[in-house]
Specification:
With 157 residues, the protein is an alpha+beta fold. It has a single domain, classed as Bacterial Protein-export protein SecB. 28% of the residues lie in helices and 38% in strands. The chain has three helices and four strands; from the N terminus they run H-E-H-E-E-E-H. The chain has helices at 3-12, 33-36, 110-139; strands at 15-29, 40-55, 58-72, 90-102. A four-stranded antiparallel beta sheet has the order 1-4-3-2, covered by helices on one side. Strand 2 and strand 3 (58-72) form a beta hairpin. It is elongated, with a radius of gyration of 19 Å.
């Protein structure tokens, strides 16, 4: 078990999830997306805590999730020029606010809260993120896509 997981477990032992709210969602599908997929593509998924709010024994964590498809098509094997950005053909971005009650919250350090957010809060909000991606793909008329299971870091690297 990693030190970060042990730290997160201390907070989790005295925490109770109260609510998960979607606070932001944006999706963008570029025209000609289907043609672009004929090249090599990679799905990138990122997540992070953007902020947290502490009130008495209440903890609010704001988590941001992003999915984008990066493509190298036969026509686009050259890298963008300096200052040029490449728009992903598909991008989904969401933010969730996750509310917890935490016994004796003030006894935990910022590092404890960061570890809890990185592991437990992401784990708790992951199913909501998966649903956003699944339903967005469907609404865009794309084949189903299932976000992989969230893997907790169990071993030190």
């Amino acid at each position: 078990m990693t030190p970060e997981l042990k730290t997160a477990a201390k907070v989790a032992a005295v925490s109770q999830i109260q609510n998960v709210r979607l606070t932001f969602v944006h999706s963008d599908l570029q025209p000609g997306f289907e043609k672009v997929l004929n090249g090599k593509s990679e799905i990138q998924i990122d997540h992070r805590m953007t902020e947290y709010i502490v009130r008495e024994d209440e903890l609010q964590l704001i988590l941001e999730f992003k999915l984008k498809i990066v493509v190298e098509s036969a026509e686009e094997k050259t890298a963008p020029q300096p200052g040029e950005t490449s728009t992903p053909p598909l991008e989904i971005h969401a933010k969730f606010c996750v509310d917890y009650t935490v016994k004796d919250l003030k006894t935990f350090s910022e590092q404890d809260i960061q570890a809890f957010a990185k592991i437990n809060a992401v784990f708790n909000s992951w199913p909501y993120w998966r649903e956003i991606v699944q339903s967005t793909f469907w609404r865009m008329g794309l084949p189903p896509f299932v976000i992989p299971v969230f893997r907790m870091p169990l071993k030190s690297d």
